[in-house]
User: Fold these one by one.
Assistant:
Number 1:
Amino acid sequence: MIKSLAAALLVLGLGGCIILGDRSGSETPDYQVVADLGRDVQVRSYGPRLVATATVEGTGDWSARSTAFRLLFDYISGANTGQEKIAMTVPVQSARDGEQIDMTVPVETDRSGNGFRMRFFFPAKYTAETAPAPTDPRITLEVLPATELAVLEFSGFWNARILKEQKRKLAVVVERSDWHATGAPVEMFYDPPFSLPWLRRNEVAVPVAR
């Protein structure tokens, strides 16, 4: 019961006791800004990153998000072969199977897939060899390759409509730049639901190339 309550309070992302915008020193993946596209969009270069991915049925509704986050929360709380506790990091990333971002206006979304994925980024001290294996088959470990992401940051509350609108804005900016999308969009969240809205850090991103 206590674990379920803790997971519910942290669902959507996001570790640490963050109420006033202090993320309690939570580790984040390193990146370099390689281009500023304006309108709060920047292109970031990320190196390889070790992640734990929870995959559940659904298209990103609250139930799917809650289930996926609870799986990841349990995993870092000790539901792994080493019964090891792993420090929470930010952001938590989510995506829908089959979703694409069309670099014309309006953004078209393909919801033909029925899977929802949420990812936890490991602290830098872990490698694929040292990370404990998950005990739940819905969680997989993988190393994401180095990539460049066009990222739009925004604050405040969010829902499916707001996320769709932010992805549309991102699509417009990228389309008018020297970059083009090379994959599906993702969402990245840095704060839990009880954070003050104007201090929340939310992002939508898409892999890009010149």
Number 2:
Amino acid sequence: MSVFNEFVHEYDLWYERPFGKAAYELELECIKKLTSIPENSLEVGVGTGRFASRLGVKYGLDPSVEMLRIAKERGILTVAGVGEEMPFKDGSFETLLIVVSMCFVQKPAKVILESHRVLKPTGKLLIGLVLSESPWAEFYRKKAEKGHPIYKHAKFYSRRELECFLHKGGFRIKSVACTLFEEPQDEKPVGNREIAEGFKNTSGFTCILAEKI
């Protein structure tokens, strides 16, 4: 998506600002609650490598060459491409991550199917996202209505839709965790650092760990 080439520096700096930095650290904690990440892992929609570099993910896939340039500087082995048509052989990875990227893919169901294909038989898929039921999704939708250059391209999916994508794609949900339980905002550091098990409609970030069936 060309918008990520154009706004790559603004996107990456978000993680250094008070809210972005606090939310990022909390999201990392939430992910780590669910699973440890083996080295032979891939992040789809790796962006500038913020999550992959902190989680020990070796490979990163993204359509934005500008974002991949920064991810490479963070030590990620980068590949240009999209989640709907991953340029990897069947059974290439032990774990696959899609963190804060699902709302920007063109065909989410196809991405899940491709994830199944490139994972090993015992592979795991971890998705981190804002569900459409969340008040945070409405917060970002309002930003999109006001012309936000990135959020205007986002589409948020419901719990039911995600469960359907995963079931049809050959996955079974193993565990779920969520966090960001406070009034949506994007300026002040996060105050509530709770991480809860299961789906919660009030959370701003949900992590779903699924395994191949």
Number 3:
Amino acid sequence: MNNLGHNYKPVLEHIMRGEVEKKLHGLQVLPVRREIAHEVISLAYGFFTPVSGFMGRDEVDTTLSRMELPDGTLWSIPIVLDVKREEVKRLGLKPGDSVLLEYLGAPLATLDIDEFFSYDLGKMAEMTYGTRDVKHPGVKRTMEYSGDFVAGRINLVNEPVFNEPFSEFWKTPLQHREAFAMKNWKNVVAHQTRNVPHTGHESLMKQAWFAANEDMPVDEIHTGVLVNAIIGEKRTGDYIDEAILLGQDALRKGGYFKDNVHMVTFTLWDMRYAGPREAIFHAILRTNLGCTHHMFGRDHAGVGNFYKPYDAQDMLKAERDKLRIKPVFLRENWYCPVCNEVTNEALCSHESQSQNFSGTLIRSILTDGVKPTKRVMRPEVFDVVMSSAEKYGFGSPFVTNEYLKSRQPVFNLKKMEVFAS
């Protein structure tokens, strides 16, 4: 499949001038859920290059069995669109047809249908996640598919309009590369996150910057840190998306990173928690954004006890020759009161006195609303997270049922007049 990302804008302008609208008006309409809409947008803009449409059976087979596309390109996660057989029959769809995908009551994209196929969901889950246990959120997600799928190329026809504060942080892959060029970044190290930052995260980013800066002149700064947050499915207890983005950016605004070495953006993606396979996917994703390096720490993209702490790093090492990005491997860190610094077990012998950056500790601090010491969380980050809670989170920095029900949407779609008649 070819990448649409770099040629997308002229195609959309062509459509919006009305030369293709009459054709779209006669298409059958297939409404899609939020997670599919997110993947449509990512496919169309080139985040998933070289995949530019929902996968067919052969692509799913080789992704699961060999972790590659049929042409041998490294790929680790199936990107599929499940549609119930009854819906296909009702719409009278067949290979060769185009169908209009609709989201939020507005047109989003066309799908040029290549094939329909069924797939064993248990097999898909086990080969992706290494388990069929529905306690694994990725397995649960997969087992909720209909089992019937439609494959084909995606063509975006309606650009998403991102709401505040998301609009400040949205960039397509091409726009990422343009921003890096404006900053004169030769090397860019990616930080994957779904969290607000504490000083442990900050320390890891700075360690990764030094690692990615290894071949740069000592008197010049041509290396940057890209914090690319994942915005997607939320569960109660997660950090709210707005706090994640604004909290990460507060590190730069607070002076803990200079403007010319730090940037925050996001990608629309529902975490699969696929551990090693998702680490490979993240490496491919950030390669498409123009990054040269990617930091990987303990339990990258893992969940519960389904993977060992450094399984993701082991798989990245095994696939290193196929990657087009350099992994930066980092260990778990802590604050040592004896050394008076952030360190880890490989460097410091005071493990018994160490203070871990536990999620429970950070959450209790934010829940109580008591400003922590600088050694735990920067005061600027704390202030932004708490203000985000009031402005966007209905009083909480964590996802609640009220947030899930009433939150401001990440983006809206324009109601195109041609579909209103």
Number 4:
Amino acid sequence: MKPLFKQTVTLLSLILISFTTVKAQPDYSFKNASLKSGTALTTGAVYKFLNVRPGTDANITILGNTGGVTLTSIDENWTGFDDAFQPFINVAPNANGYVEFRIDFLTNGTENLRNQARVNTSCIDVDGVVYGNGVLYEQDQVEYAGGTYDFSMNGSNLQVLNPPGWVSIRNTTGVSYPGIDTTQKDVMATVTNMNVSSIKIRIGARNTSPTISEVRYRSVYFKKFNYPSSILLPNRTTLSFSGAWKGNAVELKGLLSASHTYDRLIIERGSSSETIMPIGEISLVNTNSADFVFNYLDNSAAPDVNYYRLRMVNTNQQIYELSSIIMVKKSGQTVNDLRLVNTIVNSSNPSLNISSRNEEEAGVQVADMSGRIVYSNKLRLNSGNNLINLNQFNSRNGYFVIVVKTKQSSLSQQIIVQ
């Protein structure tokens, strides 16, 4: 968004904002914040928002700030959308960081967490500004506990990535758009979380100017939008995906389900889970007739550690689906901190045995082959084997996909319920 001190509101922009607000009512309305506890605008401060939706209040807690980005206002509604969460941030010279918030949804009039079946979080107007001696790029992150995230594939202003536990939305051009609205889809992205009572959001920027600081007004609008294309998660097509060193190259192998409509398989690689880029492509055949086995040899792999991901693309419909990320070390073994011990589940007593290298929080979801979520839960995994009782699982026998995500790693695998 435009810097605070340069804002000029014309009659036309007010009309456009009013029109957009009427036509795009959000699922949640954040306004009239009151300081509940702590010191205003500092780490630990908690703000109360009443009646964000029928029967639901919300607390927003400031968890901290990083990299020279600080908070100047918790929620300003004199511009943009009255119902959106709109903090103002100050971006110092050479800054690269965020202000992090946690949103807790509560039963109206209490401090009891209230589960939300679906939370659509749209970061809008993630733009920037070009200075004489640098560029400011806005950047946001939304916690990702399982669901979908969407953005425009046709735009060139954003880089949208999926590091473990988050969706990262970064401006890459510094192009500035006037005002705050939802018409510029190429600087917007929507993250949809399912069955959550809390989510975290990071609002920030990267500033390459060594001298210029600026207050930026930001906006998070709680509504799902339609984009020219979508990322569909959890992954339902990749039945297996592995990698190992073979001589001086990394050999990738995998199996894709026949129940898809994709025509291209793009191999992506990076030096970390946040820097993944395309390196190769395979044409998909036998669509909807048989499982597809693929093999790819990466002759330009880095000599130590490489991160790989698959992107399945439907060219005509402009949709695509992402696999989980795997890490391949020079030792030759695919590294994954999570492992599913059993792939066959008894429908009368459904349970899963998940082996975890670390003790950490995890989100567990089970989806049927059409993508419908039939089980979702957050739990704590202990180091070693963990027996997970799917006591809320209620579905027919057949093939399903389990998705387990932690801050460090993720697992996606097909299971059979019988």
